[in-house]
Amino acid sequence: MPVYNGAATLRQSLEPLLAMRCRGEILEIIVVDDGSNDASAAIAGEAAVTVIESGGRLGPGGARNAGATIAAGDALWFVDADVVVHPDSARVLVEALRSSGAAAVFGSYDDDPPAPNFLSQYKNLVHRYQHSHGAGEVDTFWAGCGAVARQAFADDGGFDADSYPYSSIEDIELGLRLRRRGLRIHLEPALLATHLKVWRLPNLLHTEIWRRAVPWSRLIAAHGWWSGTLNMGHGERLRALLAACTVSALLLAAIGLAPVWPTLLLVVVVAVANGRLFGYFRQRRGTLFAIGGVLYHQLYYLYSAAAFAYCLAAQGGSALRRRWNRWTGAA
């Protein structure tokens, strides 16, 4: 468990893990304090878990790597310091590792986040929706509540802490390396955890654009890596395209450069394409929330697609500059 200034949530996160250790379901709990200036290390010490210092502000990837170096188990279970795993999580995780034969297994947030505001509810419910519909073999990894076979983790060199010195897509990049070695990753939706994070618009947009969409797009562009699972699936790509086309049509219609009827048709198509997500939101939080959630999700598609287009254009521009420099003999 990496922690940086996590005193507000650390006790809650440790509580179910301590109970699992008492029951003999997990071997040890290692908390890696990543340069906190609050009481995180003291709280972990009072809980009688193994506490080590990362040796500086390494970011969660580097902190997890530091903990992995002293771990004794055959499987490394990573849990974030603002995540509270469900009481049966260790048993579910062990069974999933055994039955799937995968080198890595991860779970999902549950659909009951404690933060009551709209964006916190939306973000967690979208995560649960995608993970509950994407069960089975996948092409990525999630370190919020996920485990990797110790040997596989060591063979791949752990998380790339140099490229991702802050919370970003370090777990997704690790998943890519595991898959390229032919190892399997399994998504187990019964492996549940409650997320304590409070999302508000500034931190949500910053995280989703600069910590997720942009580095993820760069990873795809650099490696030519296209996955067909979770939020990279073909359906998600189509819905992102529909969102972009609909907004473009709305703008053209608003300034009189296009008729209104194609826009109305696109709105209907978008509503149908997002029908399952709307039904999920409505079942969990009611009709008004479902309408707001699906509308905000179109914004998510827009900035994710824009980040991807930006990264592709930047990569293409860099490639053209390299070719031009080679042709002209420039440095």
Give the helices and strands, then pairings.
Blueprint: E1 2-3, H1 7-22, E2 30-33, H2 40-46, E3 50-53, H3 59-68, E4 75-79, E5 83-85, H4 89-100, E6 104-109, H5 118-133, E7 136-138, E8 145-149, H6 150-155, H7 170-180, E9 185-195, H8 201-223, H9 234-254, H10 261-273, H11 275-285, H12 287-328
Parallel strand pairs: 1-2, 2-3, 6-9
Antiparallel strand pairs: 4-8, 5-9, 6-8, 7-9
What fraction of residues sit in β-strands? 5-15%
The third-level CATH topology of the largest domain is Spore Coat Polysaccharide Biosynthesis Protein SpsA, Chain A
Query: How does the major sheet shape up?
Result: 6 strands, mixed
Radius of gyration equals 22 Å
CATH class of the largest domain reads Alpha Beta
Number of domains: 2
Specify the overall morphology.
globular
Which homologous superfamily in CATH is the superfamily of the largest domain?
A: Spore Coat Polysaccharide Biosynthesis Protein SpsA, Chain A
